[in-house]
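Q: Structure tokens for this one, please.
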Amino acid sequence: MRMTNEEYRQYAQRHAPRSPVKKNLLNAFWIGGVICCLGQFFLNLYTRMGLEAQAAGTAESISMVFIGAALTGLGIYDDIARVAGAGTLVPITGFANSVAAPALEFKTEGLITGTAAKMFVIAGPVIVYGISASVVYGLLLVLLGCG
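A: Here is the predicted structure, written as tokens:
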């Protein structure tokens, strides 16, 4: 049976399972919102404990990264992500998950060639392109006289 690319695309579309888009959007929204509310809770807590705004923000970020990494290590973050989808990717806990998950996955290959070498497989490109984009943006601001 020979098919053109267009015929195959149509065939695949007819037989692909339908994604529950509305349900996925709702889950991503409310679970991502809960994660962000948890971050706000920590920020308020650290501020009430007497930390200045910048120090409270730093402590809150550290807390959220720790929670994300701990939940990844316990295998809970993946279960949450199955329901929430992108709702778990956007907050800072998603970054922690993207670092911890490959580290755990490749730990059998050893501390150096497994965990250390593979830790930034997912997060590495995000960091590299994020820094590169900020440098380009900063240079453009300087060149245009805005910075």
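A few notes: The CA atoms of residues 69 and 96 lie 5 Å apart. The mean pLDDT is 87.
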